[in-house]
């Protein structure tokens, strides 16, 4: 029964996030916000809603392994799986934006700060103060985007005109509220069922979170980025990945720590944290050298295979 509850709640969670994403995009376009910023903020935050809801719910209920593993697993999958697939299937990935000069470092900052936070507590805790510090980092990122968005706004005038013609405030608000309700309840049931599945299989909540839950909550990023890449909207696809990883640590994990200080023995999970760091460095290397090629996609998928093999060996 727990497997059915997990799948149904995951579908509800993703469907709710999808509603919020589509309505947020309409609102953003209504006010002439650029395509990249839509991808890096509203869509990124929207596709990160499942991770946020799952981690906050898990932290509130004292299931700290699920709360943290979901974030780490999602960040690895967003780069190694999502970006890897995007680079493999896209006919041409040629972003207008220079991601290395302007954005990719923002994917690295939260990872480095998280490592410093963990080390400062002797690998035992992410405190409430640290949670607020992570949230402040997202605030800095949003200010950065707003300040550096002027040169790209004019690219979206056509979309802006179309959005004005189709926009309906009442409809958008109703749909967004409905989407949030679906996300909250979906996350609550998914976390509880995932915890029960872990117990029934005799594996840790960390394993379930870093693979099963993170794979489910990363589905919105995968769908949005792949569709965007297929439509030759590379800026939105890559922006979604960078913004989602930023939001996962700063907003999702930050809020989870504010709700309930996370107490966990992080020394057990050094390998997973290291893989997340390596994946982020690979993202920066790819953007720095503009290596948006199938070869880069294969390299990312190789890293994913090594990560999953390590997980499989630790279970057996």
Written account of the structure:
It is a single chain. The two termini are 24 Å apart. The protein has a two-stranded antiparallel sheet with strand order 1-2. The chain is built from 14 helices and two strands, in the order H-H-H-H-H-H-E-H-H-H-H-H-H-E-H-H. 81% of the residues lie in helices and 1% in strands. It has one domain: NCX, central ion-binding region (A middle domain of Talin 1), CATH 1.20.1420.30. The chain has 316 residues and is an all-alpha fold.
Low-confidence stretches: 151-156
- Count of separate structural domains: 1
Q: Supply Rg.
A: 19 Å
Order of helices and strands: HHHHHHEHHHHHHEHH
- How many beta-strand runs? 2
Question: What structural category do the secondary elements indicate?
Answer: mainly alpha
| Assembly of the depicted chains | single chain
Name of the CATH class: Mainly Alpha
Mean pLDDT across every amino acid position? 82
Profile the largest sheet.
2 strands, antiparallel
Helix coverage percent: over 70%
Name the overall outline.
Answer: globular
Task: Tell me the span between the first and last alpha carbons.
Answer: 24 Å
What do we call the CATH topology? A middle domain of Talin 1
Strand content: under 5%
Q: Examine the secondary-structure arrangement and name the CATH architecture.
A: Up-down Bundle
- Largest sheet, spatial ordering of strands: 1-2
The number of helical elements comes to 14
CATH homology superfamily: NCX, central ion-binding region
Secondary structure blueprint with pairings:
Elements: H1 2-30, H2 35-47, H3 49-60, H4 64-89, H5 99-102, H6 105-120, E1 125-126, H7 128-147, H8 157-166, H9 169-201, H10 205-217, H11 219-230, H12 234-259, E2 262-263, H13 270-288, H14 294-315
Antiparallel strand pairs: 1-2
């Amino acid at each position: 029964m727990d497997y059915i509850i997990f799948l149904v709640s995951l579908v509800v969670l993703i469907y709710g996030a999808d509603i919020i994403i589509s309505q947020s995009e309409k609102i953003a376009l209504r006010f002439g916000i650029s395509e990249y910023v839509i991808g890096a903020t509203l869509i990124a935050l929207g596709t990160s809603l499942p991770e946020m809801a799952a981690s906050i719910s898990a932290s509130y209920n004292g299931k700290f392994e699920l709360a943290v593993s979901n974030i780490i697993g999602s960040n690895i999958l967003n780069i190694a799986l999502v970006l890897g697939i995007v680079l493999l299937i896209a006919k041409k990935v040629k972003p207008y934006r220079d991601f290395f000069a302007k954005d990719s470092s923002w994917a690295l900052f939260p990872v480095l700060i998280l490592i410093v936070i963990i080390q400062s507590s002797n690998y035992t805790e992410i405190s409430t103060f640290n949670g607020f510090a992570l949230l402040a980092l997202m605030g800095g990122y949003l200010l950065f985007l707003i300040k550096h968005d002027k040169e790209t706004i004019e690219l979206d005038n056509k979309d802006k005109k179309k959005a004005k013609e189709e926009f309906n405030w009442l409809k958008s608000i109703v749909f967004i509220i409905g989407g949030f309700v679906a996300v909250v309840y979906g996350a609550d049931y998914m976390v509880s069922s995932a915890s029960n599945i872990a117990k029934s299989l005799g594996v840790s909540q960390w394993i379930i979170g870093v693979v099963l839950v993170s794979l489910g909550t990363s589905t919105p990023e995968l769908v949005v980025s792949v569709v965007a890449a297929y439509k030759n909207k590379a800026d939105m696809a890559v922006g979604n990945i960078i913004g989602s990883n930023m939001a996962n640590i700063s907003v999702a994990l930050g809020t989870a720590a504010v709700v309930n200080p996370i107490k966990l023995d992080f020394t057990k999970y050094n390998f997973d944290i290291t893989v997340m760091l390596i994946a982020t460095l690979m993202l920066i290397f790819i953007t720095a050298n503009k290596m948006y090629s199938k070869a880069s996609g294969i390299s990312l998928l190789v890293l994913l295979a090594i990560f999953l093999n390590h997980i499989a060996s630790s279970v057996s």
